[in-house]
Amino acid sequence: MLMGSLSFSSWAQPDRWQQRVKYTMNIDMNVLTNQFTGKQKLEYTNNSPDTLTKVFYHLYFNAFQPGSMMDTRSRRQGGVNGAGARPDWDGRVKDRIINLKPNEIGYQKIVSLKMNGRPQAFTMLETILEVKLDKPILPKSKVVFDMDFEAQVPLQVRRSGRDNPISKVRYSMSQWYPKLCEYDYEGWHPTPYVGREFYGVWGDFDVSISIDKKYILGGSGYLQNPNKIGYGYEDKGAKVNRPAGDKLTWRFIAPNVHDFMWAADPEYIHVSKKLRDSLTIHLLYKKTNEAEKDWLNLLDMAEKALPFIEKTFGQYPYKQFSFIHGGDGGMEYPMATLCIGPGAGLHEWMHSWYYGLLGTNESLYPWMDEGFTQYAEERVAAFLNNNTGFAQGDNYASYFSLVRSGKEEPLTTHADHYNLNAAYSPAVYSKGAVFMEQLGYIVGAPARDKILLEYYRQWRFKHPTSSDFMRVAEKVSDMKLDWYKEYWINSTKTIDYSIDSLWEEGGKTKVRLMRTGLMPMPIDLQITLKDGSKELHYIPMNLMYGEKPAEDAAIPRKVYAPWKWTHSTYIIETTKRLADFTLVEIDPSLRMADVERKNNKLELKW
Ligand SMILES: [Zn+2]
Questions:
Q1: pTM of structure
Q2: How far is the CA of 254 from the centre of ligand 1 (A)?
Q3: Which residues contact residue 452 at a Cβ distance below 8 angstroms, ignoring those fewer than 6 apart?
Q4: How many A from CA of 436 to the centre of ligand 1?
Q5: How confident is the model at residue 7 (pLDDT cuts 50, 70, 90)?
Q6: DSSP-based three-state secondary structure for 281
Q7: Which secondary-structure segment (H or E) carries 73?
């Protein structure tokens, strides 16, 4: 169910098919060797109209071996473009993989794999397992894969691993199990693990982890045997009744997610807070240099922010969320995050919406998970800080700086294939966030907010693409917006409008505007007069086939015929005398990402 009421819910849920998985895994962890064995039963439903003759799995841990694609890419990224090109390493990876010793590398080895009880032939291709099936999987049918595998947890380099050098957390267990690749309308997505972003099949997880009794776990899913575990998970007032033996088996169930993460450490401090009957927030952290109160503040922050978040972005549908100390930086997973410190908590939590629930293919649309999350984070932070000003200024500044660098690559670039690390983050995070704020400039902030909720309503628990988002935006705003995606996402063309000239003619004052940049936009032009009054002159852009409603009832607005995108100038007029003007300004809201703002504003001193 959606919080709040929507008056525009007449569009059907999309009927695109998607595959379905149900994982049942039994994991036996040896904390002395850092190796574990796994039995994985995978029920796979082929909802596609296609006959599948092979399947692919991700084997992410194999990236943490000298000479791997991730190793090679991390050491050479950016340095491959001819003489003098500066290496642009991921500061967290650098040359750490090539220096891993045999007991420090990561691996996932497949011992056996059966489909419906019959052994299957498979080929290990580093981080991808290719399985050529002995019999095809027919459309609309279900098969069961049974796999035995062995794995070694790598010394933590990137996201997952053991014995994090900073947090000292023993196990950050993300990308840790053989995970079926997604098959969608574009076919298989066997993306080798070289660095960035993920894509998973929607389904259910039932994971039992046997591990040394002293370890405390957190992660995706709901613990099924809390009173046999304790460590703060037990029911209120319940007596903890641990079975005999050196190990405890933690059983988690995670319904309707596309990945499963866990973490373990004997020194975790576990605190939780119940926000409502159906939602508990867990916090697992280690006492390190990080101020303890900043970790604990995450629980208060979550409680305070949740009503605003759900009203703005849609309901959080799961029964728990866990903030967990580990990993590097912050990384999002269903129902949980791994963070090196508490500062990343809000950002990672907002990924529950843009990643967790709206499960875009992050390799293809990293700006839809990172950019939208970045946008959401800034909005929630502004709410928490009672900041009513312009909340997205840092994202605009970062985008402008990227443009100035001359290193920008289009947002359609596959996350792994950005040439430079330095071009990836400002594009995906900042330009992606600007996309959303600027959409509010084009369609109006109230319509943009309705788009966010309708996008959630139609596409939660699915794999929306950029076109899916644009269609929701078009339906809600009643405008054509394909041009916005073509320019902002598919190209690196920039926006630059200027005030060209002002003059009086026939008892009117005229202002000529000029488009210098290649990307066309609708224009808000505000004129301020000596008596302090303001006029807004609004020029829609012709490809919109619509106009945004007035945003500020206090300022009279004149709406013009659309500015044709082929035309470089446009003249507006007012009956006010030029001598009464004090300020003429294009987009005083600063939401239009004009790369040269100096010529947007003309102060008149008489
Ligand atoms: Zn993020």
A1: 0.95
A2: 21
A3: 312, 313, 314
A4: 15
A5: very low
A6: strand
A7: helix 69-76
528 CA from centroid of ligand 1 (Å)? 40
Helix, strand, or coil here: 265?
A: strand
- C-alpha 348 to ligand 1 mean position (Å): 6
- What's the rounded Cα separation, in Å, for the pair 336 and 284? 11
127 three-class SS: coil
Give the distance (Å) from ligand 1 centre to CA of residue 465.
18
Q: How far apart are CA 512 and CA 480, in angstroms?
A: 26
Cα(45) to centroid(ligand 1), Å: 30
Kindly give the distance from the C-alpha atom of residue 375 to the centroid of ligand 1, in angstroms, as a whole number.
Answer: 10
Distance 193 CA to ligand 1 centre (A): 18
Report CA(377)–ligand 1 centroid distance (Å). 10
Q: Encode pLDDT of 431-486 as tens digits.
A: 999 999 999 999 999 999 999 999 999 999 999 999 999 999 999 999 999 999 99
Query: Which pLDDT band, with edges at 50, 70 and 90, does 78 fall under?
Result: low
Mean pLDDT value across the chain: 94
- The enclosing H or E element of 257 equals strand 247-257
The Cα–Cα gap between 384 and 391 comes to 12
CA of 72 to the centre of ligand 1 (A): 24
pLDDT tens figures, 140-188: 999 999 999 999 999 999 999 999 988 899 999 999 999 999 999 999 9
Q: How far is the CA of 215 from the centre of ligand 1 (A)?
A: 28
